[in-house]
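Researcher: Quick one. two chains, 232 residues in total.
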Amino acid sequence: DIHMTQSPSSLSASVGDRVTITCRASQNIINSVNWYQQKPGKAPKLLISLASSLQSGVPSRFSGAGSGTDFTLTISSLQPEDFATYYCQQIYSIPITFGQGTRLEIK
Amino acid sequence: EVQLVESGGGLVQPGESLRLSCAASGFIFNNHWMSWVRQAPGKGLEWVANINQQGSEKYYVDPVKGRFTISRDNAETSLHLQMNSLRAEDTALYYCARIFCTRNCYSGDWYFDLWGRGTLVVVSS
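Model:
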């Protein structure tokens, strides 16, 4: 199984800050990584597919990068609505696995 | 309206069975692979199972193999998860999710683009 190690597990930041979340795969997964945002009581929402493709309707302050084993999700200037939990997901091979999540909180 | 609506969750005792359903509407159901993803209370996301458009290919996470069965009824545009021999560790919110494949669904280039609200399964004595 491919293990996805996401860091940090939690992060406190302020509106306007630039934040980066990292996901490391236990083996080379090319660019088969998606990123989701989940708010309390809601289903996850896709932000980024194929490591760096921004989904339609997602603000451009979100960006994804990386290939091989190391991937990042960056929010260039945090907005109040961005405080949520973020998950990376590898879809390179079965079983599909998620990172453990990064909870982004208001400082 | 394009949506997925799960049902069938509830409180059951260890060893019992439960059948979850997901009603799809607003899109061509048999064009898409489908999936179940679960989330234990206060925990992260765990993929459970995938099924292809025809229902001929099914994949499962190891902890549920041999106990859970994913199926679909394209005529009724519904997805199901038959869960047998339930354990306390199966307690979770179960989401139905639609898979969108960019090129083909075997190329590591797909994602969950539509989710339901989930149905809660609690396994406890």
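The interface with chain B takes residues 1, 29-30, 32, 34, 36, 38, 43-46, 49-50, 87, 89, 91-101 of chain A (CB under 8 Å).
Researcher: Thanks, that's what I needed.
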